[in-house]
Design a protein that fits this description.
With 322 residues, the protein is α/β, with parallel strands linked by helices. It contains 7 helices and 25 strands. The two termini are 40 Å apart. Bound molecules: guanosine-5'-triphosphate.
Amino acid sequence: MAIGILLVGGFGTRLKPLTNETPKPMLPVGGLPVTERQLLAAKKAGIKTVILATSYLSDVFTPYFGDGSKWGMNLLYAVESQPLGTGGAIRNAAALVNFADSNEEFVIFNGDVLSGHDIAAQLEFHRANSADATLHLIEVADARAFGCVPTHPDGRVIDFLEKMENPVTNSINAGCYIFSPSVISEIPGGEVVSIERETFPKLVKDGRPVYGYHEQSYWLDIGTPAALFKGSRDIVGDGFHAGPGCTIGEGSVISGGSSIGAGSTIGVDCAISNTIIGDGVEIGDNCAIADSFILHNSKIADNSKILGKYISPSENLPISPQ
Ligand code: GTP
Protein backbone atom coordinates (compact mmCIF):
# COMPACT_ATOMS: atom_id res chain seq x y z
CA MET A 1 0.00 0.00 0.00
CA ALA A 2 1.10 3.57 -0.65
CA ILE A 3 3.10 5.47 1.96
CA GLY A 4 2.00 8.92 3.18
CA ILE A 5 4.26 11.92 3.71
CA LEU A 6 2.87 14.94 5.53
CA LEU A 7 4.83 18.16 4.89
CA VAL A 8 4.62 19.90 8.24
CA GLY A 9 7.97 21.71 8.60
CA GLY A 10 7.25 25.23 7.28
CA PHE A 11 7.45 28.39 9.40
CA GLY A 12 3.81 29.40 8.93
CA THR A 13 4.86 33.04 8.65
CA ARG A 14 1.51 34.29 7.33
CA LEU A 15 -0.24 32.90 10.40
CA LYS A 16 1.94 34.67 12.95
CA PRO A 17 1.55 35.10 15.91
CA LEU A 18 -0.53 31.88 16.00
CA THR A 19 2.53 29.91 14.88
CA ASN A 20 4.93 31.45 17.43
CA GLU A 21 4.69 28.35 19.63
CA THR A 22 2.72 25.90 17.48
CA PRO A 23 3.56 24.68 13.96
CA LYS A 24 0.77 25.61 11.53
CA PRO A 25 -0.36 21.97 10.98
CA MET A 26 -0.79 21.49 14.75
CA LEU A 27 -3.19 24.42 15.15
CA PRO A 28 -6.61 23.05 16.11
CA VAL A 29 -9.52 23.44 13.69
CA GLY A 30 -12.90 22.28 14.96
CA GLY A 31 -11.13 20.72 17.97
CA LEU A 32 -8.44 18.67 16.16
CA PRO A 33 -5.04 19.62 14.69
CA VAL A 34 -5.00 19.81 10.89
CA THR A 35 -2.36 17.04 10.89
CA GLU A 36 -4.69 14.69 12.76
CA ARG A 37 -7.46 15.38 10.24
CA GLN A 38 -5.02 14.51 7.42
CA LEU A 39 -3.92 11.32 9.16
CA LEU A 40 -7.54 10.25 9.42
CA ALA A 41 -8.06 11.01 5.71
CA ALA A 42 -4.95 8.97 4.81
CA LYS A 43 -6.18 6.08 6.95
CA LYS A 44 -9.56 6.18 5.22
CA ALA A 45 -7.74 5.73 1.89
CA GLY A 46 -6.03 2.59 3.26
CA ILE A 47 -2.63 4.20 3.95
CA LYS A 48 -1.03 2.67 7.06
CA THR A 49 2.47 4.17 7.16
CA VAL A 50 2.85 7.95 7.30
CA ILE A 51 6.04 9.96 7.63
CA LEU A 52 5.84 13.38 9.23
CA ALA A 53 8.41 15.67 7.55
CA THR A 54 9.09 18.15 10.33
CA SER A 55 11.50 21.02 10.91
CA TYR A 56 10.18 24.18 12.61
CA LEU A 57 9.06 23.30 16.18
CA SER A 58 9.52 19.62 15.38
CA ASP A 59 9.31 18.66 19.08
CA VAL A 60 5.59 19.47 19.17
CA PHE A 61 4.56 16.50 17.00
CA THR A 62 6.04 13.46 18.75
CA PRO A 63 4.35 13.79 22.18
CA TYR A 64 0.97 14.17 20.44
CA PHE A 65 1.20 11.42 17.81
CA GLY A 66 3.81 9.00 19.23
CA ASP A 67 4.18 5.91 17.05
CA GLY A 68 0.67 6.37 15.63
CA SER A 69 -0.75 3.23 17.24
CA LYS A 70 -3.52 5.27 18.89
CA TRP A 71 -4.83 5.82 15.33
CA GLY A 72 -4.01 2.26 14.21
CA MET A 73 -1.20 3.64 12.02
CA ASN A 74 2.56 3.45 11.79
CA LEU A 75 4.09 6.93 12.13
CA LEU A 76 7.69 7.86 11.37
CA TYR A 77 9.42 11.21 11.82
CA ALA A 78 11.94 12.80 9.43
CA VAL A 79 13.42 15.91 11.06
CA GLU A 80 15.24 18.53 8.96
CA SER A 81 17.67 20.59 11.02
CA GLN A 82 17.27 23.34 8.38
CA PRO A 83 14.05 23.38 6.29
CA LEU A 84 14.79 21.68 2.94
CA GLY A 85 11.79 23.10 1.07
CA THR A 86 8.90 20.91 -0.04
CA GLY A 87 10.97 18.78 -2.46
CA GLY A 88 13.97 18.34 -0.18
CA ALA A 89 11.60 17.40 2.65
CA ILE A 90 9.96 14.69 0.52
CA ARG A 91 13.31 13.20 -0.49
CA ASN A 92 14.55 13.29 3.12
CA ALA A 93 11.35 11.66 4.44
CA ALA A 94 11.23 8.93 1.77
CA ALA A 95 14.80 7.90 2.70
CA LEU A 96 13.36 6.53 5.98
CA VAL A 97 11.59 3.76 4.06
CA ASN A 98 14.32 2.97 1.55
CA PHE A 99 12.43 4.37 -1.46
CA ALA A 100 15.04 3.15 -3.96
CA ASP A 101 14.01 -0.48 -3.37
CA SER A 102 10.32 0.23 -3.07
CA ASN A 103 7.43 -0.21 -5.47
CA GLU A 104 5.07 1.76 -3.27
CA GLU A 105 3.76 5.12 -4.37
CA PHE A 106 4.11 8.09 -2.05
CA VAL A 107 1.03 10.17 -1.27
CA ILE A 108 2.18 13.61 -0.20
CA PHE A 109 0.09 16.14 1.67
CA ASN A 110 0.80 19.83 2.16
CA GLY A 111 0.23 20.00 5.90
CA ASP A 112 -1.95 23.09 5.82
CA VAL A 113 -4.87 21.92 3.68
CA LEU A 114 -8.33 20.69 4.66
CA SER A 115 -9.64 18.56 1.80
CA GLY A 116 -12.53 16.14 1.50
CA HIS A 117 -11.38 14.64 -1.79
CA ASP A 118 -11.22 10.89 -2.42
CA ILE A 119 -7.54 9.98 -2.00
CA ALA A 120 -8.15 6.32 -2.95
CA ALA A 121 -9.71 7.48 -6.25
CA GLN A 122 -6.72 9.76 -6.90
CA LEU A 123 -4.43 6.76 -6.36
CA GLU A 124 -6.50 4.63 -8.74
CA PHE A 125 -6.33 7.39 -11.38
CA HIS A 126 -2.53 7.55 -10.91
CA ARG A 127 -2.21 3.80 -11.45
CA ALA A 128 -4.62 3.69 -14.39
CA ASN A 129 -2.47 6.27 -16.20
CA SER A 130 0.86 4.68 -15.22
CA ALA A 131 1.74 8.21 -14.15
CA ASP A 132 4.96 9.42 -12.58
CA ALA A 133 3.06 12.06 -10.62
CA THR A 134 -0.63 12.84 -10.11
CA LEU A 135 -1.81 16.03 -8.43
CA HIS A 136 -5.20 16.76 -6.97
CA LEU A 137 -6.49 19.82 -8.85
CA ILE A 138 -9.28 22.05 -7.62
CA GLU A 139 -11.15 24.80 -9.46
CA VAL A 140 -11.21 28.15 -7.68
CA ALA A 141 -13.41 31.12 -8.60
CA ASP A 142 -10.42 33.43 -8.97
CA ALA A 143 -7.09 31.76 -9.77
CA ARG A 144 -5.09 35.02 -9.94
CA ALA A 145 -3.61 34.47 -6.46
CA PHE A 146 -2.34 30.98 -7.38
CA GLY A 147 -0.16 29.27 -9.93
CA CYS A 148 -2.47 27.39 -12.30
CA VAL A 149 -2.23 23.93 -13.89
CA PRO A 150 -3.79 23.49 -17.37
CA THR A 151 -4.47 19.90 -18.44
CA HIS A 152 -5.53 18.00 -21.59
CA PRO A 153 -9.07 16.51 -21.49
CA ASP A 154 -7.61 13.15 -20.31
CA GLY A 155 -6.01 14.91 -17.35
CA ARG A 156 -2.42 15.04 -18.60
CA VAL A 157 -0.74 18.20 -17.28
CA ILE A 158 0.33 20.67 -19.97
CA ASP A 159 2.18 23.18 -17.81
CA PHE A 160 2.74 24.71 -14.39
CA LEU A 161 2.16 28.43 -14.71
CA GLU A 162 3.09 31.11 -12.18
CA LYS A 163 0.50 33.57 -10.81
CA MET A 164 -0.85 35.80 -13.60
CA GLU A 165 -3.48 38.51 -14.20
CA ASN A 166 -5.44 36.37 -16.70
CA PRO A 167 -5.06 32.70 -15.69
CA VAL A 168 -5.59 30.28 -18.59
CA THR A 169 -7.54 27.93 -16.27
CA ASN A 170 -9.06 28.07 -12.79
CA SER A 171 -7.50 24.69 -11.87
CA ILE A 172 -4.87 24.95 -9.15
CA ASN A 173 -2.64 22.51 -7.28
CA ALA A 174 -4.70 21.51 -4.22
CA GLY A 175 -1.66 20.26 -2.28
CA CYS A 176 -2.07 16.46 -2.36
CA TYR A 177 0.09 14.62 -4.87
CA ILE A 178 1.16 11.09 -5.65
CA PHE A 179 4.68 10.20 -6.77
CA SER A 180 5.99 6.95 -8.13
CA PRO A 181 9.19 5.97 -6.26
CA SER A 182 11.38 6.64 -9.33
CA VAL A 183 10.49 10.33 -9.16
CA ILE A 184 11.69 10.59 -5.57
CA SER A 185 15.16 9.35 -6.53
CA GLU A 186 15.43 12.19 -9.05
CA ILE A 187 15.04 14.87 -6.37
CA PRO A 188 18.56 15.87 -5.26
CA GLY A 189 19.34 14.78 -1.69
CA GLY A 190 20.35 17.15 1.13
CA GLU A 191 19.45 20.31 -0.83
CA VAL A 192 16.70 22.86 -0.65
CA VAL A 193 14.26 21.98 -3.46
CA SER A 194 10.78 23.33 -4.25
CA ILE A 195 8.43 20.71 -5.60
CA GLU A 196 6.13 23.35 -7.09
CA ARG A 197 8.78 25.54 -8.72
CA GLU A 198 11.40 22.93 -9.66
CA THR A 199 10.29 19.27 -9.65
CA PHE A 200 6.83 19.52 -11.25
CA PRO A 201 7.82 21.94 -14.05
CA LYS A 202 10.89 19.81 -14.88
CA LEU A 203 8.86 16.59 -15.07
CA VAL A 204 6.43 18.22 -17.50
CA LYS A 205 9.21 19.82 -19.56
CA ASP A 206 10.88 16.39 -19.86
CA GLY A 207 7.63 14.92 -21.24
CA ARG A 208 7.02 12.66 -18.27
CA PRO A 209 3.48 11.43 -17.52
CA VAL A 210 2.17 13.96 -14.98
CA TYR A 211 -1.61 13.95 -14.47
CA GLY A 212 -4.16 16.17 -12.78
CA TYR A 213 -6.92 14.47 -10.79
CA HIS A 214 -9.89 16.85 -10.86
CA GLU A 215 -12.25 16.59 -7.91
CA GLN A 216 -14.33 19.47 -6.66
CA SER A 217 -14.44 18.52 -2.95
CA TYR A 218 -14.46 20.72 0.15
CA TRP A 219 -11.04 22.40 0.07
CA LEU A 220 -9.37 25.09 2.12
CA ASP A 221 -5.77 26.21 2.59
CA ILE A 222 -5.63 27.40 6.21
CA GLY A 223 -2.51 29.53 5.62
CA THR A 224 -3.84 32.85 6.99
CA PRO A 225 -5.68 33.67 10.26
CA ALA A 226 -8.93 34.43 8.38
CA ALA A 227 -8.74 31.06 6.57
CA LEU A 228 -7.92 29.16 9.77
CA PHE A 229 -10.98 30.61 11.53
CA LYS A 230 -13.12 29.84 8.48
CA GLY A 231 -11.87 26.23 8.42
CA SER A 232 -12.74 25.78 12.07
CA ARG A 233 -16.20 27.36 11.61
CA ASP A 234 -16.85 25.18 8.54
CA ILE A 235 -16.27 22.06 10.65
CA VAL A 236 -18.18 23.27 13.71
CA GLY A 237 -21.20 24.74 11.88
CA ASP A 238 -23.57 27.35 13.37
CA GLY A 239 -23.32 26.42 17.03
CA PHE A 240 -20.14 25.51 18.85
CA HIS A 241 -17.96 22.48 19.51
CA ALA A 242 -16.83 21.40 22.98
CA GLY A 243 -14.24 18.65 23.41
CA PRO A 244 -14.40 15.91 26.04
CA GLY A 245 -14.27 16.97 29.69
CA CYS A 246 -15.18 20.66 29.11
CA THR A 247 -17.35 22.55 31.59
CA ILE A 248 -19.32 25.64 30.67
CA GLY A 249 -20.66 27.86 33.47
CA GLU A 250 -24.29 28.91 33.78
CA GLY A 251 -25.35 31.88 31.68
CA SER A 252 -22.42 31.58 29.26
CA VAL A 253 -23.23 31.82 25.55
CA ILE A 254 -20.83 30.25 23.05
CA SER A 255 -21.59 30.97 19.40
CA GLY A 256 -20.32 31.78 15.92
CA GLY A 257 -18.76 28.38 15.26
CA SER A 258 -16.40 28.62 18.26
CA SER A 259 -14.59 25.51 19.37
CA ILE A 260 -13.36 24.57 22.84
CA GLY A 261 -10.65 21.94 23.27
CA ALA A 262 -10.64 19.00 25.68
CA GLY A 263 -10.70 19.61 29.44
CA SER A 264 -11.24 23.38 29.25
CA THR A 265 -13.42 25.28 31.70
CA ILE A 266 -15.48 28.39 30.97
CA GLY A 267 -16.82 30.42 33.92
CA VAL A 268 -20.34 31.83 34.30
CA ASP A 269 -21.89 34.62 32.19
CA CYS A 270 -19.28 34.61 29.42
CA ALA A 271 -19.97 35.54 25.79
CA ILE A 272 -17.64 33.81 23.32
CA SER A 273 -17.92 34.00 19.55
CA ASN A 274 -15.80 33.04 16.49
CA THR A 275 -13.03 31.90 18.81
CA ILE A 276 -10.75 28.86 18.87
CA ILE A 277 -9.93 27.68 22.38
CA GLY A 278 -7.32 24.96 22.90
CA ASP A 279 -7.16 22.12 25.44
CA GLY A 280 -6.89 22.68 29.19
CA VAL A 281 -7.78 26.39 28.99
CA GLU A 282 -9.32 28.10 32.05
CA ILE A 283 -11.56 31.10 31.38
CA GLY A 284 -12.90 33.03 34.36
CA ASP A 285 -16.39 34.49 34.93
CA ASN A 286 -18.05 37.27 32.95
CA CYS A 287 -15.54 37.29 30.06
CA ALA A 288 -16.32 38.59 26.55
CA ILE A 289 -14.16 36.99 23.86
CA ALA A 290 -14.51 37.32 20.06
CA ASP A 291 -12.40 36.57 16.97
CA SER A 292 -9.57 35.23 19.10
CA PHE A 293 -7.29 32.22 19.43
CA ILE A 294 -6.58 30.97 22.97
CA LEU A 295 -3.77 28.42 22.98
CA HIS A 296 -3.72 25.22 25.09
CA ASN A 297 -3.34 25.67 28.87
CA SER A 298 -3.88 29.46 28.87
CA LYS A 299 -5.60 31.11 31.84
CA ILE A 300 -7.95 34.09 31.37
CA ALA A 301 -8.90 36.23 34.40
CA ASP A 302 -12.50 37.08 35.39
CA ASN A 303 -14.08 40.04 33.53
CA SER A 304 -11.57 39.95 30.64
CA LYS A 305 -12.55 41.60 27.33
CA ILE A 306 -10.64 40.03 24.45
CA LEU A 307 -11.15 40.99 20.80
CA GLY A 308 -8.96 39.78 17.91
CA LYS A 309 -6.19 38.46 20.16
CA TYR A 310 -3.76 35.56 20.22
CA ILE A 311 -3.29 34.41 23.81
CA SER A 312 -0.94 31.68 25.02
CA PRO A 313 0.42 30.98 28.53
CA SER A 314 3.29 33.37 27.71
CA GLU A 315 1.98 35.78 25.03
CA ASN A 316 -0.90 38.21 24.46
CA LEU A 317 -0.79 39.70 20.95
CA PRO A 318 -3.18 41.16 18.36
CA ILE A 319 -4.11 39.00 15.33
CA SER A 320 -4.24 40.70 11.97
CA PRO A 321 -6.84 38.72 9.98
CA GLN A 322 -5.74 39.20 6.29
P1 GTP B 1 4.22 30.56 5.15
O1 GTP B 1 5.54 30.82 5.83
O2 GTP B 1 3.08 31.33 5.76
O3 GTP B 1 4.27 30.66 3.65
O4 GTP B 1 3.86 29.02 5.45
P2 GTP B 1 4.71 27.68 5.25
O5 GTP B 1 6.03 27.92 4.60
O6 GTP B 1 4.70 26.99 6.57
O7 GTP B 1 3.78 26.85 4.32
P3 GTP B 1 3.65 26.74 2.73
O8 GTP B 1 2.23 27.00 2.41
O9 GTP B 1 4.67 27.59 2.06
O10 GTP B 1 4.02 25.22 2.52
C1 GTP B 1 3.08 24.19 2.30
C2 GTP B 1 3.30 23.06 3.30
O11 GTP B 1 4.64 22.57 3.20
C3 GTP B 1 3.10 23.47 4.76
O12 GTP B 1 2.36 22.46 5.39
C4 GTP B 1 4.49 23.56 5.33
O13 GTP B 1 4.53 23.13 6.71
C5 GTP B 1 5.27 22.59 4.47
N1 GTP B 1 6.65 23.04 4.25
C6 GTP B 1 7.04 24.18 3.63
N2 GTP B 1 8.38 24.24 3.60
C7 GTP B 1 8.85 23.11 4.21
C8 GTP B 1 10.16 22.59 4.49
O14 GTP B 1 11.18 23.20 4.19
N3 GTP B 1 10.23 21.38 5.13
C9 GTP B 1 9.11 20.68 5.50
N4 GTP B 1 9.27 19.52 6.13
N5 GTP B 1 7.87 21.14 5.25
C10 GTP B 1 7.74 22.34 4.61
